[in-house]
Design a protein that fits this description.
This protein is of the alpha+beta class. The protein has four domains: 103 residues, no CATH class; 243 residues, no CATH class; 93 residues, no CATH class; 104 residues, no CATH class. Helices cover 43% and strands 21% of the residues. It has 13 helices and 32 strands. The strands form ten sheets. Strands 22, 24, 25, 26, 27 and 30 form a six-stranded antiparallel beta sheet that branches. It has a four-stranded antiparallel beta sheet with strand order 5-6-7-8. Strand 6 and strand 7 form a beta hairpin. The protein is elongated. It starts with a helix and ends with a helix. 36% of the residues are buried.
């Protein structure tokens, strides 16, 4: 009987070993499965006087091959990889807005500016003028289309974050349910390996969306935390995540992740607090990359539109009237804040940022932050540059930085507490709201507002190179021309004619003349080349003085063309290169995101490989074990067979007596 018991115990143990091996083979392709190994131990032998005789074997437990440290490291790496991957994918989509080609925004800008060449050649040609207006209309349409694309991306990002949050909440509920089942199973003294695998897989899925930290409880439950210390899963209970607009800047459209505590209070989690996972990557794209894309687009629309508006208002139309704005532009925006009493719809209770110099504009959002001691600083969010602001207790803030005039009423500055701030998005809607205002070809002002005449009796070689009005308030009045006279020493002076007295004013102080260098006088400048003789003169007058005999010239068409090379962006980038500069900014971000995604993917894959090396099923190893346990099973059966044969022999011997 002793031999029989040994054989039976061996048979049972090897049967369970075969079952475990078969279970491993069956789950070779199961992503969450951890290889299981049977652990056996010898039964305590019986003292027979001459020594202990073994009683066989029994299964101690079914071990789960799992490394907890590798599991946690793999989860963290997967979260970082998911964040980088989704951000890179989103940037690739946004890069399409800043792509080149004939249908690009850059091509539309160049087409519009080049259209002035035909107007310069034939200023009275209605067809050439209409082509310019058509190109302007096409440009504004492309600006609005590009802005609409970015808005659609903003909406899609918001929806994707919302969907991911819903998934995380559902998965957290499953972890809590498994915690309860596992705690009950552990009461038997053995680990429920398959339940543990299922829980670990769900935790891995959660980390694809939001990075978690986990703490093991004595009961066998796993507690999950997000944002550092917010309990997403605590035993069998769960918290809830949601996504909404940031509470700091209501109305701004900036998103934050919120954690709902059991008492109903919501804790705001920024993208940096979230850490990794798709939600963190999408929040960073929405609140940073997408903002940069909008700012570049809006700044471009404002700068180009402002330059063309200014140029058109300095010249004359076909009807000899001064031109008007070519584009409708949004040049002033309201800030966003949660300061007590702040009301974005009331100018007396809100802050404003207005464009004053498009050449100095920087494509960035801004934040005024208060230090609680009556002081404040302006933060340029694109690079973190700080500017100290002057705060008057009565009038508040009125200061110009980067071509923007920031005004904050005293009622707002006095109500601001330490740590509170105001967010400004001066370019967020500029591209979306740009519209063409001139639709009649005759209203395109391409004729110069001033005209010049080089006296025919001049003895020198003076020639007119260019004549430009820079300020309407300073150009010669009608019937009051300006005469520039040159002396033999290479100097010039000028006089203004007074029609009321029919006399010339006293000459200005003499100034040196340089061929090819502009002579600045009030609201206009003239560039002459050549060498003047003593007493030579040039008369500059108001173009409207010609009256019915007004002769159209193409001076302003030339000025429009010259804007192509004018430095209007970042105090150095030309209008024609502005779009290329924006392309470079977005391209650099996209390339950087690509490198980050590739690096984090490599790290995640390596850690996953390390985890799989410990937990994964190797079919060759399992096949070898299958043969091993099969032979052991057959040997165990042979023991039983031998014991049976011996028992039969004993029975026969006893029966024979």
């Amino acid at each position: 009987m002793s031999l029989m018991n040994v054989g039976v115990s061996a048979l049972i143990a090897n049967q369970q070993a075969l079952t475990t091996t078969g279970h491993n083979i069956a789950n070779v392709n199961s992503a969450a499965y951890s290889r299981q190994t049977i652990a056996t131990k010898a039964l305590v032998g019986q003292n027979m006087g001459t020594g202990y005789v073994g009683k066989g074997v029994q299964v101690a437990t079914i071990m789960r091959n799992y490394n907890e440290l590798l599991g946690k490291q793999s989860n963290a790496a997967n979260a970082a990889s998911a964040a980088d991957a989704i951000r890179y994918q989103s940037l690739v989509q946004m890069q399409d807005v800043y792509s080149g080609g004939d249908s690009s925004l850059g091509a539309a800008i160049n087409s519009m500016m080049n259209a002035f060449a035909d107007v310069e050649a034939a200023p009275a040609d209605g067809t050439a003028r209409n082509v310019v207006l058509t190109r302007m209309s096409e440009l504004t349409a492309r600006f609005r289309a590009a802005s609409a694309t970015l808005q659609e991306m903003d909406y899609a990002t918001n929806q994707q974050v919302t969907n991911n949050v819903t998934l995380v909440n559902n998965l957290a509920g499953q972890v809590a349910s498994l915690n309860t089942q596992i705690a009950r199973a552990l009461a038997s003294g053995h680990q429920p390996n398959d339940l543990l695998d299922a829980r670990d897989q769900i935790i891995r899925e959660i980390n694809q969306y939001v990075q978690t930290t986990q703490v093991d409880a004595d009961s066998g439950a796993i507690n999950l935390f997000v944002g550092g210390s917010q309990a997403l899963v605590l035993g069998s209970s769960t918290g809830q995540l949601s996504v909404a607009e940031t509470a700091e800047y209501p109305g701004s459209g900036k998103l934050s992740l919120y954690f709902s505590q059991p008492n109903g209070e919501r804790v705001e989690l920024t993208a940096n607090m979230v850490g990794g996972g798709e939600i963190a990557g999408l929040l960073k794209f929405n609140n940073d990359d997408l903002v940069t894309g909008r700012n570049l687009l809006g700044r471009m629309a404002l700068s180009i539109g402002t330059e063309l508006n200014h140029q058109n208002k300095l010249r004359l139309t076909l009807s000899a009237n001064f031109g008007t704005d070519l584009f409708k532009l949004t040049t002033s925006t309201t800030g966003w804040s949660n300061i007590a009493g702040y009301d974005a719809g009331n100018a007396a209770q809100s802050a404003q940022a207005a464009v004053t110099d498009t050449h100095a504009l920087v494509a960035s959002d801004y934040r005024i932050q208060f230090n609680g001691a009556g002081g404040a600083q302006l933060v340029r969010l694109s690079d973190g540059k700080l500017t100290d602001l002057n705060v008057d207790p009565a009038t508040g803030i009125d200061q110009t930085v980067d071509g923007l005039q920031f005004t904050v009423p005293g009622a707002v500055t006095n109500a601001a507490q330490k740590g509170q701030s105001i967010l400004f998005q001066p370019f967020s809607k500029a591209a979306d709201e740009i519209q063409p205002l001139v639709h009649n070809a005759a209203d395109l002002a391409v004729s110069n507002a001033v005209t010049a005449n080089i006296t025919s009796s001049n003895a020198g070689t003076l020639q007119l190179s260019s004549l430009r009005a820079t300020d309407l308030t300073g150009i010669p009045a009608q019937n009051a021309p300006v005469r520039i006279t040159f002396d033999g020493a290479g100097n010039y002076s000028y006089q203004t004619y007074d029609p009321a007295t029919s006399s010339w004013s006293a000459a200005s102080a003499a100034a040196p003349y340089t061929s090819g260098q502009a002579i600045q006088i009030n609201g206009w400048n003239i560039t002459l080349t050549g060498t003047p003789g003593n007493g030579d003169s040039v008369n500059v007058g108001n173009a409207k003085d010609l009256g019915d005999g007004y002769k159209l010239n193409a001076g302003n068409a030339s000025a429009f063309l010259a804007l192509r090379d004018a430095a209007i962006f970042d105090n150095g980038t030309s209008l024609s290169d502005g779009f290329s500069s924006a392309m470079a900014v977005i391209g650099t971000r996209t390339q950087s995101a690509k490198y980050a995604a590739e690096l984090s993917e490599t790290v995640a894959n390596n850690l996953n490989a390390d985890r799989t090396a410990v937990s994964g099923v190797n079919l060759d190893e399992e096949a070898a074990r299958l043969l091993q346990y099969q032979q052991a099973y057959q040997a165990s059966a042979k023991i039983i067979s031998t014991a049976q044969s011996l028992f039969d022999s004993v029975l026969s011997a006893v029966g024979g007596r």
